[in-house]
Amino acid sequence: MTRAPKAPLRAAAARGRESARGSAALAAAILMASASLVALSPQRAGAQALPPLGVLAREAVQPAPRGWVWPLEPRPAVVRPFDPPSRPWLSGHRGVDLAAPNGAEVRSPAAGTVVFSGWVVDRPVVTVDHGEGRRSSFEPVSGSVPVGTRVDRGAGLGTVTVSEAGHCAPSTCLHWGVREGGAGSDDYRDPIAFIEDRRPSVLLPWNGG
């Protein structure tokens, strides 16, 4: 009687054992994945349900790009906003007028150096150079800091004073102008844009709050 070769039988048995081990490993992986899904399920006590698709984001206001502060405390009302002319030679409002009583302290909106403190025609003016070709000018302000003094953000520069030639005469207010491009430049910017962020808001991932 002819016996079957043992080698093919052993190979078949080995393949069967490997297949069984593979099936067991796959089953274990499925069980672990199922357990993880159960653990993350929002139906568990104390868990927070995820919002519907499409509301996984919410608007977030970004911080102001410059990090400047208001030159008056508390935050003043804007009596007249920035309204630049369409052409440099035309009339316009090249700054903002902020409500301020006579004697109110004026602060530097950003760090810089006092480069002017004195009279310009018929009103007292204080100018601070913030670097990068950017300058702030305030009027009518009676300066209290000598020219050449380095000031920090929020440092006092002087006080609002009464001026018949002021922007809000006969009332008092603080006129704040910002120029870019260095001394003598007529490239005026909206000062409030350096305090309040006017860029479009962005969407951040929903955090469940």
Any overview of this molecule?
This protein is α+β, with helices and mostly antiparallel strands and 209 residues long. It is 17% helix and 30% strand. Strands 2, 3, 5, 6, 7, 9, 11 and 12 form an 8-stranded antiparallel sheet that branches. Strands 4-10-8 form a 3-stranded antiparallel sheet, with no helix packed on it. Strand 5 and strand 6 form a beta hairpin. It is globular, with a radius of gyration of 35 Å. Residues 35-65 have low confidence and may be disordered.
pLDDT < 50 runs, ≥5 residues: 35-65
The main sheet comes to:
8 strands, antiparallel
* Rg (C-alpha, Å): 35 Å
Distance between the termini: 81 Å
Secondary structure layout plus pairing:
Blueprint lengths: L5 H35 L16 E4 L17 E3 L15 E4 L5 E3 L4 E9 L2 E9 L2 E6 L1 E3 L6 E2 L4 E5 L12 E8 L6 E3 L12 E4 L4
Antiparallel strand pairs: 1-13, 2-3, 3-11, 4-10, 5-6, 5-9, 6-7, 7-11, 8-10, 11-12
Index terms:
1 helix, globular, 13 strands, 30% strand, 209 residues
Kindly summarize this structure in a few lines.
With 209 residues, this protein is of the alpha+beta class.
